[in-house]
Write a structure and sequence with these properties.
Length: 164
């Protein structure tokens, strides 16, 4: 596997997929982000813990297609710290080498064959324009409470009245 991708694009996609990673995974491979470089010029990133999955696809210059599984949190930290230059990623045996400007990082890979099969995406049930969604959210966001204690205090008050 060998590809080149813009740093900001990579950092955003890795951050998106890594945020669903469990803090204490039941299996080490579930702490990983699956990188899938496609010959069509698409880099897919995915995470999955048997309950929640996240996927992202970004454009990349793919020289050699392939798949690799690396530590998601470590990849997220590294991708955010890279300079604002294109990132070259190469799979060499059981290691991935990331080169960006003068920075160079090596990450150990995990066995891709141990990673669980990702669930299929559900069918689209509808669509709405971004402007319409923004307008709708703006109308109801004023009713959202910023008080984290409000729901629990309402439940506590209801329970104390129910006991009387």
């Amino acid at each position: 596997m060998k590809f080149r991708v813009e740093r900001d694009v990579l950092a955003e996609a890795v951050t998106w997929t890594a945020r669903t990673l469990p803090t204490r995974p039941p299996a080490p491979v579930l702490a990983g982000v699956l990188l899938d470089a496609d010959a069509s010029g698409v880099l897919g990133l995915a995470s999955f813990d048997y309950e929640v999955s996240a996927r992202a696809q970004v454009p990349a210059d793919v020289s050699e297609p392939g798949r690799a599984l690396v530590s998601g949190r470590l990849l997220a930290e590294i991708s955010r710290a890279l300079p604002d230059k294109p990132v070259d990623v190469v799979l060499e045996g059981s290691k991935i080498t990331m080169t960006c400007g003068a920075s160079r990082f090596t990450l150990l890979t995990m066995p891709v064959e141990d990673y669980p099969a990702l669930p299929s995406m559900p069918e689209t049930s509808g669509s709405v324009s971004g402007d319409d969604l923004t307008h709708a959210v703006a109308q109801v966001s004023v009713a959202a409470s910023r008080d984290d204690t409000l729901p629990s205090s309402r439940v506590s008050a209801w329970r104390s009245r129910a006991r009387r």
